[in-house]
Amino acid sequence: MDVATTAVVVSLIAIAVLLGLMALGWRNRLRRQQHIQPPSAAPEDRGAPHYAAVGQYVVTTSGGDWLDRVSVHGLGNKASATAAVYSHGLLFDRSGEREIYIARDSLVGVRLERGMAGKFVEKDGLLVVTWTLGEEIYDTGFRTRYAADKPQLLAAVNALIGEPDSSTNPTSPNSKEIQ
C-alpha cells in the first residue's frame, strides 16, 4: 500500500470509531433519561391563540443546566416551529416532529438568554421557558424568526404565567454574558 491509500484507510477507520462513540453516547443518554415521561397532549379544542410566533424550537434541557440536552420523546431535536400562547398553555408546533404542549400550571418562568445546548446567539436572542414535568424542571429554548416577535411572545408567556414582565423572573446561571 502506498502512503496515500494508508492515510485514507486510517482516516476512514478513525471516522468510523468516532461515529461509533457518538452513537454509544447518545444511546447511554437515552437510557439515563428513560424515566422522563412524555409531555401531555394539547387539548383537542384549543381555541384561538392569544399570540403566535414562527421560529426555531431549539432544545429542551434539564432546568438550570443549559448543556444537558433532554433526548427522549424528541425534546432534544431542533425544528422549525410555531410557538402559540393559549389561555390554557403554550404549544410548540414543530415541523416534522411531535408537538410539545406545556400546560399553564406547569409553566414556572420565561426569560431571554444568549444560548443553550448547541445554539448560541446575540445577547437576549433566545426565549427560554422554564417548566415542570412531574417532579423535574426543564428549560426549553425558542428563537423567533423575526426580532419584533420576541418581546411580544415574552409578554404573552409572562401574562400566561401571571408575571407582569420578565424582570420578575429569576435568571439562570447562563444568563450572564458569555465571554
Notes on the structure:
The protein has 179 residues and is α+β, with helices and mostly antiparallel strands. The protein is elongated and about 70 Å long. A hairpin with a 2-residue loop joins strand 6 and strand 7. The strands form two sheets. It has a seven-stranded antiparallel sheet. A two-stranded antiparallel sheet has the order 6-7. The protein is built from two helices and nine strands. The chain starts with a helix and ends in an 18-residue tail after the last helix. Helix content is 24%, strand content 32%. It has two domains: 32 residues; 125 residues, Pleckstrin-homology domain (PH domain)/Phosphotyrosine-binding domain (PTB) (PH-domain like), CATH 2.30.29. This is PH domain-containing protein. Pfam families: bPH_11. It comes from Arthrobacter pigmenti. Keywords: Membrane, Transmembrane, Transmembrane helix.
Stretches with pLDDT under 50, minimum 5 residues: 166-179
Number of domains: 2
Based on Cα principal axes, name the global outline: elongated
Order of strands in the sheet with most strands: 4-3-2-1-9-8-5
The total of beta strands comes to: 9
| Shape-level CATH architecture of the largest domain | Roll
Instruction: Please write the string of helix (H) and strand (E) elements.
Output: HEEEEEEEEEH
How much of the residues is beta strand, in percent?
Answer: 25-35%
Largest sheet: 7 strands, antiparallel
What's the alpha carbon Rg, rounded to whole Å? 19 Å
End-to-end Cα distance, whole Å, is 48 Å
Computed structural class: alpha+beta
